[in-house]
Amino acid sequence: MFFRKLPGVSASGMGLRLSQKFVFLLFLSGLVTLCFGALFFLPDSVRLKRIFLPRSESQPLTVEPENDEGEPGNKGDKDHDHVRGITPAKGETTAKMKAPGRKSYATKDAKAAEKPEDWNQAQPKASAVKPGLATTRAQRRGQEKGTVSSKGSQPASPFDYEKFKGCLLKPPLGTDRGKPSDVQTQQQRDKVREMMKFAWDNYKQYAWGKNELRPLTRNGHIGNMFGGLRGATIVDSLDTLYIMGLHEEYEEAKDWVLQNLEISSNGEASLFEVNIRYVGGLLSAYYLTGEEVYRKKVAELGEKLLPAFNTPTGIPRGVINLGSGTSWSWGWASAGSSILAEFGTLHLEFVHLTEITSNPIYTEKVMNIRKLLNKIEKPHGLYPNFLSPVSGNWVQHHVSIGGLGDSFYEYLIKSFLMSDKTDEEAKKMYYNALEAIEKNLVQKSAGGLTYFAEWRGGMLDHKMGHLACFSGGMIAIGADDGEAEKRQHYMDLAAEITHTCHESYARSATKLGPEAFRFDTGAEATATRLSDRYYILRPEVVESYLYMWRLTHDPKYRQWGWEAVEALEKHCRVESGFSGIRDVYVSTPSHDNMQQSFFLAETLKYLYLLFSDDDLLPLEDWVFNTEA
User: Fold this and answer.
1) What is the pLDDT of residues 460-469, one digit of tens each?
2) Counting Cβ atoms within 10 Å, is residue 304 exposed (0-12), middle (13-18) or buried (19+)?
3) Percent of residues in the chain assigned helix, strand, coil, to nearest 5
4) Which of 63, 505, 559, 606 has an alpha carbon within 20 to 30 A of 155's alpha carbon?
5) Catalytic residues
6) What is the predicted pLDDT for the residue at 31?
7) What backbone phi and psi angles, to 5 degrees, belong to 519?
């Protein structure tokens, strides 16, 4: 601001003395500082940004080298402990077919892919490989044999599904859909399939097209995690329905995706949740069936997620409006930071988006994240949970293998496996992180239970969350590729962690585990706070049972899995679906009225595979994302 000098009148004659001008300028500078400080330096304010900033930010400077209508929010959705499958608003974790991602749907007129016979034709031999995302693994095998065009070919050819299928070592559905030979195991598997049909039928009857079912009130739940996207349970369930041979139900789901899945919708969506559930679900469905509708839908959705990466560092923000492309950080995230388990759980799906679209931008985005993480200093080799997308620096030194951190570590080892064990950078990052975790977080209780504590600026919090219980399976699938002298040690650690998580179930009245359990004040593997006593149909414990069974064939893991089935039937099954419970330590618990989509996508899928033969989705060909 300035004053225009008038003829014959001095500046001092304008009525402002030197002292007054000083006070005025002091006031003005304070006002400017307040306005711009609030806009740029305080934790992200979405509404201020919408007023003062353009709708979409400038291109990222990459680092070198709806709630329910009239209903309260979902208490059971993931808490701010984040996690594999549920984000802040919801609070849950995810598990989809990591082979290519999430579930997917197929076009109405193509039913041939449903028939396992299509996969039973002789498959070309390929070099031995480990479990990984079928796409990349098979794709790499094809490249080695010259059957798939190289990345640099001009112009890029569209993804050839038939060539991909020919590179798989085994049929995805096995010789007989994984049917076990013994009668007892067959009966147990049939029970899990019946549970899936029951959950699906009630969702279809009372909540069709909504995101999740409220079984007590018999209505649908939309929530505030997926923006304007609908049908989360449908997309999440595609591969589970297909694997279990529920053909009619699968066709219903496929038809809904074809006719009703609307991608261009406005609403505040979690980048993490949309990625693991919708992108992962559609990719999984595509790789299992070859149905073009899934590829087209997921390609369209992937493009909608890219504006979230428009930050100075290329680290995406956690929330995005799929319609406008505007993105921002969670209001509860410290100083507008991004969450490790969210921006670190994109790699599997985004690499496959590049595969099926021939657009390298998706891989470039996630490789830029990895480049920054390799460059930044890590306290004691650990990865804190909060990172600024503006400065690229850690915001808090809070480290957790559970909520807020969990699936970042999972995606490191799975990226290595998915690449046919050629991604040496991911392998190095994983084993270095695991070494730091063992040195700083692994603890042994007085009663002999091994657990992961949380690290808060150098102080240990002797708490382990249900979400951290996936780590038994994670450590197990990575054991064989560690240093030779450590391989047995890793398997032993995986077994100990899985045992501890089983104890958290066994020590409750319902035989289901709490959201978090502690190892202090005399308690071991039990929740000591009322706020930690609930169970929302989470899959992490049975996920580890599955991996431990596949790698050891120790019968106790199937026994533990059956205990979980019986507990779910007794305490979570209600008249119109399955519901989480509010207190695992009372024999007649109250229900939370929510059938989470990940219950169908993960919990029931893992249990079904646990009681199936190993040739159903063999780990030699397939990797599961964090939504299974």
Assistant:
1) 999 999 999 9
2) buried
3) 45, 10, 45
4) 63
5) 515
6) 64
7) -135, 50
